[in-house]
Amino acid sequence: MNRFLLSLLLSLLALTTVATENNNANVTFEITLADSEGKMVNDAVFIFEPLFEIAVTTDSEPPTAIMNQIKKQFVPHVLVAKTGTSIRFPNADNIFHHVYSFSPTKQFELKLYKEFTAEPLKFDKPGIVDIGCNIHDWMLGYIVVTDSPFFAKTENEGSISLSLPKGDYNVRFWHPLVKSDSLFETKTLSVNESSAVEWQLSTALPADDEFDFGFGDY
To answer: Is residue 153 part of a domain?
Structure first.
């Protein structure tokens, strides 16, 4: 093969590689969520399950996540984690907590402890995990464990932004105060370009009262 043909083939290969990379480039998908009264909704979980093959990584397990206990509340109130994630439950309060869950996805009990003494727990099964404190009954938290790497949770302004490969997805929605996944007429969504959507629940959500019942420091 002469140098001209070799140079031409290398150029075509480079162009093909660039085209393939551009075709597979991620796009940005933004969601703003409100309830039926127009109030922005935080702690809403969106999981995008790809209906196409994605590259399987052989990286080490996901980084450790944290579900803290601050002022007798779980912080964050809702935590989303990839299956296989280890989660720490530090206690930032100067009082004892007794964290537990009876959920089928993950049953555990971290008996009376304070400060940063509890060992992390691995969550290796997808699903919803309700957690509570055996001392402070009003303390409620939720861990959403998903097999998909594409997920996000709305914050105070009711918005999220995800970086997604182009393609078709099943979209799953969950919120602790919404009884059913009734947000979508269809759960299948095609993502082919960067876009922003505004979605609205069919129900109004109660205001967050911080669950602070003032039972004292115990």
So the answer is: yes
Which pLDDT does position 20 carry in this prediction? Answer: 35
Instruction: Report pTM.
Output: 0.82
CATH of the domain at 65: 2.60.40.420
* Residue-number span of the structural domain to which 101 is assigned: 24-200
Q: What does pLDDT average to in each consecutive run of 10 residues of the chain (218 residues)? A: 33 34 76 95 96 79 93 96 96 92 96 81 96 94 96 94 96 90 73 95 78 41
Q: Which helix (H) or strand (E) holds 78?
A: strand 78-82
Q: How far apart are CA 112 and CA 98, in angstroms?
A: 5
Residue 15 included in any domain = no
Residues 6 or more apart whose Cβ sits within 8 Å of residue 18: none
Number of domains in the chain: 1
Which value, to the nearest 10 degrees, does the dihedral of the CA atoms of residues 185, 162, 35, 77 take? 120
pLDDT score of 184: 61
Contact assessment for residue 168 and residue 187, using Cβ atoms and an 8 Å cutoff: no
Burial letters for 141-153: b for 16+ Cβ neighbours within 10 Å, e otherwise?
bbbbbbebebbbb
- Domain-located, residue 142: yes
Beta strand 85-88 with 65-66 is parallel
Domain assignment present for 218? no
Q: What is the pLDDT of residue 23?
A: 53
